[in-house]
Amino acid sequence: MDVHAGQIGYYPEGVRYSIDARACDFLLLQLGGASGKGVIPYPKLGEAIKELSNTGEFREGIFRVHGAETFPPGARRNQDAYEAIWGIPQGRTCELP
Question: Which residues fall within 8 angstroms of residue 64, CB to CB, at 6 or more apart?
Answer without folding.
Answer: 56, 57, 58, 77, 78
